[in-house]
TrEMBL record:
<feature type="signal peptide">
    <location>
        <begin position="1"/>
        <end position="24"/>
    </location>
</feature>
<dbReference type="Pfam" id="PF18962">
    <property type="entry name" value="Por_Secre_tail"/>
</dbReference>
<dbReference type="InterPro" id="IPR026444">
    <property type="entry name" value="Secre_tail"/>
</dbReference>
<protein>
    <submittedName>
        <fullName>T9SS type A sorting domain-containing protein</fullName>
    </submittedName>
</protein>
<feature type="domain" description="Secretion system C-terminal sorting">
    <location>
        <begin position="296"/>
        <end position="360"/>
    </location>
</feature>
<keyword id="KW-0732">Signal</keyword>
Amino acid sequence: MKTLFSKRAFLFCLVAFFTVSVNAQFTETFESQTPFQNTFNSNGQAFSLTNAFTIYSSRSGFGYQHSNRFVDNSNLVATNQANSIKTTNATAFTVKDFWLYVSADGGNNPSADGSIIITGKLAGVTRFAITKTAGFGTSFVPDNGFSNIDLTTEGGVDNSNIPIDEIEFQLQGNFNYIGIDNFTWAPQLVLPISLISYSATLSATQQVVLNWQMANGNNTSQFIIKKSSDGRNFKEIGSVSAAGNNNAVASYNFIDASPFGSANYYLLAEVDKDGQVRQLGVKQIILYNRFSSASMYPNPVAGSSFTLHTSLSANTFNSYLITDISGRIVQKGDIIATRQKIDVPTLATGSYTIQLSDGEVIKWIRN
């Protein structure tokens, strides 16, 4: 930074090139990086610096904890400027925290006279965006004008586990200078989402329960459930939010409280955070609704019709079959009401049965 050396007391300190944490994080201090370059290598991963960002190295002691090298835009100071740190081969990584120096006078003095938008991107798509308007360092004491940006808490949301391949810093207001030091990151392997299991079962209360397990669902936004009575024409009946930033196995369930009274097909689909939809599978349940009681009158039937009484739940589809004494089906139809007239004008005199779709049978006579 371009501050006078007298403003910053030189402090000797030992600074490691990077530090490995218990969860495979690395803190890049830039002390071993080549000055004035727009690329660097940290723990074997190549990064590039975009726009005005380069590795700064001039007078010693200007970095966080008076270190000698850091990333800044001192070769092209400007307001409303966007600079990024990104992997050169689009490899995903996560960012835990870093130390930030911002200034409105070209880096001479730290200030709070502006704001900054911190954006994480993956393949050009924004994964998170934080607008920081306060909490900037305004004094060289105690951290040489730097303030810590912890992505586990900054903005009230934990963004430290979101895979990105670029982190962008957009200066706003009067800010025209930015410095980044002690950049703590972790390599992140984005694994393909995997369906471990998917099942559909019928509960004792005649509800269909869908259960599924997923692995590597870090990029999943939600699951969509669609239903069909014929296995071809599906309609969405609900959705389930994904567990969040989770590469472990996660379990989900969905309950259909109003299944069809016959065949039910359930299509499960996954929606990723970029809006892409992928079908995961279809399960089938055959359901016969249970009538609490069923009756018909008159019986015997003297005319050309009779009335069937059932106890139907709403939004279900049920059917009936009429068979003669030999078991031959002579008529069939749908049950669409709890009290329904059934016409039988062509049936001859004799004994018949009417079988409901739950298996219940009523014997009757046509006079």
